[in-house]
Structures are given as C-alpha cells and as structure tokens.
Amino acid sequence: MKSFKKDIIILSKIVKMRDTNKEDIKPVSASELPPEFKKFDKPFGLEQHEFNRIFIGYITQTCLLISYFYFIPFGIISPWFIVINGIYGYIGGLGITVGCHRYWTHKTFKANKALQVLMMLMQTISMQYPIFKWCRDHRVHHKYTDTDADPHSAKRGFWFSHITWLFLPKHPEVEDKLKIIDISDLARDPIVRFQSKYYWELFTVLFYILPMLVNQWASPELTLLQNFIIQHARYGTSLHFTFLVNSLAHMWGDKPYDKEISSSENALVSLLAVGEGWHNYHHTFPWDYKAAEFGYKINVSTMFIHFFAMIGWAYDLKTVSHKLLVDRINRTGDGSHPLFNHAHAHDKTPISKDEKHSETSLPTWGWGDKALSKDDVVITETLFTSKRRG
Ligand SMILES: [Zn+2]
Ligand SMILES: [Zn+2]
C-alpha cells in the first residue's frame, strides 16, 4: 500500500512536470529492463500462449458466440447496450491506435503528460497487455515483416496472422529479436512503467468493474454472468477488428508506396480498426502520425490526434513531405497511385534484392530508430511544433 501511494505521488508529479525533449537517450540492454516488465513473461505462472488460449481463446470466443447468436437476436440485450458497450470498446481501440501504436511504438508525435496518462488508461481498457509488451512485438513486426522473426507473419497464413499466433509458442527467431529490439525509451518512461507495475489492478477496474457498473445501472435486471459475457463480447469484437490489420491488411489491397512488402491499403480494415488499414503507407513511412497519406480519409485516430494538437496536448507531429512521397511512389510503388509517373516507369532499373538490402538495411520501426536514414529525417515535416506552444 505504501509503495502504491508513493507511485501515485510520483505519477501526479510527472503529470504536473513541464515536458522536456529527451531525444538523446542511452540504449538499455535486455538484462537491464525494469522488473515490472519482466513479470509479464509468465502471466499467472502460465506460458503466455497458454494464458492467451484460455482468456482470448476459450472464454472470449465463447462469449462472442453467445452474444452474437443468442443475446442480440433474442433481445436479451437492447440496441442501446450495443451502442454503449461499442463506444467503450472504441475508446479502448483509440488507446491502441493512437497511444500504443502511433505514440509509444512509432513515436510519431509528442504528448504532454496528461495526454499520456489518458492514452495509457484508454489502452488498458483494450486488454492487449501492457504498453511495453505491445510495442515490443510491434517494433519487431515492422523490423522483420514477413520473416520467421515476425511475430504474426502473414506468410504463415491468414488465421496465423489473425489470431492463432497468440495461442502457439513463439518461433525461436521471434524470441531472439524480442530480446534485442530497442525499447530503451519505454523502459525509461514512468507512465509505461507505472502501467506495467499496476497492470492487473488497472485492468480489473477499467475492463470489468467500471463498464459492468454502468451496464448494471442502465439495466438492473441484467445478471452478473450476462454482464460478464457482454464485457468479453466487447473485448472480442475489438480484438478481431485490431487483428484484421495483421491479417487482411497484409493480404489484400493495393501497394502504391512499396510493392515489395505484404502490407496493403485496405479501406474496410481502416473502417473497423479506427484508421489503421492504410497499411502499405504505414509500413513504408512508419514515423508518419497519420499512418496514412490522407489524414481524414476513414481515419478517426488522426482526428483524435488533431483535436489534442489543437488544444496543445499533442505536438511535433511528424509527417512525410510531398517530395519524399512522390519519389517513393515512383521508385517502389505498384503504379496504382495517381501520382505514379507511368510515362517514365519503363526507364527505371528495378532495385535488386541485394541492392535494396544494402541501401536500406533493415526497415525502420519509426521515429528514433537508428535505421531511419538521415535523408528521410531531414525531409520529414513537423506540424504543431513545440515552439508554437510557447
Ligand atoms: Zn505500426
Ligand atoms: Zn503490419
């Protein structure tokens, strides 16, 4: 209890603290990772995939089936319930897309401490494990896309990349890369560490207690079991929408920015996954805060970031310049982009695999990755700069 009080005091001081630019940080080796990160290697003493099988597999998928094939068609829950729980699920989804994905994994913008706390709480609603764990997997996914080291490689089939990767032991290559991928920024982030330390407590309140109290208040005749099933149905629905980014958006769609990678532009995924379906663009330019070329085209996450940029909570939004965009479309695109110069397409000598490898080395995971080329850094534009905030 004493330690919890101390952590809360530290956290409240962090929120009040003036934001500082911490661009130059020393890397942290895997052995130096904080203890609150290490305890997630074996949740409740189980191997990660065994825990996933029970929680995400048996419990959640059963609740999904009961809700969609019994509760909804037989009127056990009213349409209002679907709306209320849908909105809550959507808030959790934004915690993943804006917080975990665009902010913590890819560092595409900066945020003041209040927004960081808000995003951390929203991310906890989604129950996709603590921020550091999600970001570490996702950085490895970007760095080693479509190889054995990709945790949910689409090359291993639709269902593997969609969900079954969570139920199977990790490939040894994935285990190796998880140990070496740089997450030193997250290891030093007090909000990320706070969330990891109190993850199960925060999760219990935000995933179960709070939404169940709202449901009970809205419909007192609801039994505890029905209320529990609804929470897992909300969870399962938002999980499947998120998973589509790893499966469908790595299989179907145009590749206007880089035809060599599996990630594709998929409007349906963008609609369901809060704006994350513009996946060919995102893998080509992972440091762009829009995760898409067009900010507001089926992209609620970008609207969210813009809103907080306008009130000064989000700033230094990184985005790809027009010149870099056009160059890349013409150099590696599949020709489906309107800016692709078909007249000169036949003039280009295709880049050989070896040349491509030596030219770019491994793909970058985002802003702050040492693999990001200096040219790309120089040409990147910054919107809502910190100077503008005064
Ligand atoms: Zn990403
Ligand atoms: Zn991807």
Written account of the structure:
This protein is mainly alpha-helical. It has one domain (2-12, 36-389). 56% of the residues lie in helices and 3% in strands. The protein contains 19 helices and 4 strands. The chain has helices at 2-16, 35-38, 48-71, 79-105, 113-125, 131-143, 158-162, 172-180, 184-187, 190-197, 199-218, 224-246, 267-272, 279-284, 300-310, 322-332, 342-345, 353-360, 374-379; strands at 110-111, 314-315, 317-319, 381-383. It has a two-stranded antiparallel sheet with strand order 1-2. α3 packs across α12 (224-246), α4 crosses α5 and α4 (79-105) packs across α12. It is globular. It starts with a helix and ends in a 7-residue tail after the last strand. The model is unreliable at 17-26 and 352-359 (pLDDT under 50). The structure holds zinc ion (ZN) (2 copies). One zinc ion binds at residues 141, 250, 263, 279, 283.
Task: Report the C-alpha radius of gyration, rounded.
Answer: 21 Å
Beta-strand proportion: under 5%
- Give the ordered list of helices and strands: HHHHEHHHHHHHHHHHEEHHHHE
N/C terminus separation: 39 Å
Question: How confident overall, as mean pLDDT?
Answer: 88
User: Helicity level, as a percent range?
Assistant: 55-70%
Coarse morphology = globular
Subcellular location: Membrane
Family: Belongs to the fatty acid desaturase type 1 family.
Protein name: Fatty acid desaturase domain-containing protein
Transmembrane segments: 51-71, 77-100, 198-218
